[in-house]
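In this supplementary section we document a worked example of the pipeline. Step one takes a protein sequence of length 143 as its only input; no multiple sequence alignment statistics are reported here. Step two produces a three-dimensional model, which step three serialises into structure tokens for compact storage. The input and output of this example are shown verbatim.
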Amino acid sequence: MAQEYEQLLLKNQLCFPMYACGRKIVAAYTPYLKPLGLTYTQYVVFMVLWEKERVTVGQLGSILHLDAGTLTPLLKNLEKEGYVTRERSKDDERVTMITVTKKGNDLKKKCKDIPLELAGKGSPLNKKETAQLYTLLYKYLEG
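The serialised model returned by step three reads:
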């Protein structure tokens, strides 16, 4: 059967393999994160907080390429669990500051080996290909 619209063939879409790879990567993290009660999105939020300790919701959204509508309920849940505090900035009430708590920082020890465990499972890419993909994906995100 002839294809009338080549642009609609799945094999011609860059978005599909990016989407499918993202799902595959998140699935690989799940067995490590689920016992800790974390989703992948919560995990990457913690990665930012462990590095910076205190950020605004806007900064967090910018770093993670997530909007406030996604972050706000996630952060409320993390606050309810005692992992972060949320407070209005004293300089600008419209700005919400997120700070990792001691309990949130204690989680870091439990997560420290996750990247190593996943790296140990191997990748179909060699180091050079991995570096190229990393560079290209960030170029796409920033574009």
